[in-house]
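Go through this pair.

…
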Amino acid sequence: MSSYLDTITHDLQGIKKIIIEMPRKSTNYGVISFTLLRDVCIMLYEINLVLKSEGIIQTEPSEMETIKKLRHKMKTDQGMNNRKIFNNLLDNFRKNFGNDIDNIGFYLNDDILAISTIYQTFIFENTPYLNTTSPLPIYHFSKSIGSLTESLLNSINKDSKLKSGPLLNIQEKAFTSKDIWNQRFFIDDITHNIFLTRLILIQSELTGCIWLEKFLDYNNNELTLDKYILIRLTSIKFYEIMRNLNSMISIKKFEQHWDNFNLKELRLFVVAYNSTIKNEIKTLRNMVHYNNNGTNFYEFILNKELENDKYVDELINNLFNKYIFKMRILISKGIDINSYESMSDAEKKQRRIRTIVSGKDPFSTNRS
C-alpha cells in the first residue's frame, strides 16, 4: 500500500509548481489565482490536519485561520446561507466602491465571461483580506502559502515519483474588464439574485479548470506531475460545480430562472453527469481527506492506471470536452454580461458628486 505521504508529497509538489511558475507564465494570473488559492488552502488545511495527528509537525502555521476559512469555501452552494451570503457580498461591494456607481467587476476572455470579483469577495469573507484596496496583503498571503508549502515538503522529506517539466509557453491574451453597478446587475427578486450569484461562482470555477488545463503539460503517455495535479484539482472543482447545479435544480423557487437565463441545456449536462461519472468524480473528490490507514489519491490513480493505462487521459478528456468547455460557454451566453450597461467616467463623477451634495454617504450599506 502506498503511503499517504506519497499523495501529500505530489500534492505539495503540484502546488509548488503552480504557485512558483504560473505567475511568470500567465498574463491573467492575478485574476484567476483566486480560484487556485482556494484550492491550495483546501489541501494545506487537510495536510496540516493529518501531519499534526501523526506528530510529523507540531506547530500551527500563522495563516491557518485564513487557510481554514478558505478551505470551507469549497462548497459554492453554502446551503441555507445563500441569502446571508448574497447580502454580505453586496455590503462589501458598497463599502469598497460605493453604492452609487459601478461596484462589481467582471473579466472576459474575448466574449466569454471568465470570472468576477464576486468570487474573491466570496472566498475572503471574514478574513483580513476582504476589504483591502491594495493587492499587497493578498500577495503577501500568497507568499506565505508558498513558504508553508516548502516547509511541509521539508518536514516530509520524500521525493516525487512523477516526472515534471516546465509549464507550457502560451501566448495568453489579457482578459478585458467590465464594471457594473449592483443595482443594474441585480434586481428586486432575491431568488433571481441568488441564482445569478451561484452561476457566477460556478463560472469562476470552470474558468479555473480551463486555465490549469491550458498551462499544464499533461498531453503525454505517462502519468506526470502535471497530469496528476490537473486531475487532482479538476476532480475537486468539478464535483463541487455539479453539486451546486444539482442543488439549484432541486430548488423549486429557481425553476423559472432556468428559462429566464435560457439554461435548459445546462440542466441536460447535469442529468448526463449524474447517470455516468458522478460516482467516479465523487470518489476522487472525497480523497481530499488524507487517510493514513487506507487508500489515498496517488495510490488510487496508480491502481486505475494499472487497470487501464489511459484512465487519467480519458477522464480528463471527458471532463473538459464533454462538460467544462461547453458548460462555460452556455453559462456565459445565459448571463450575457455585455447586455449590462457600464458607467462612463463622467457618469461616475456626476453620480458621486450628487451623492455627496445630497448629504448621503456613498459607502453606506443601507439597502433601503
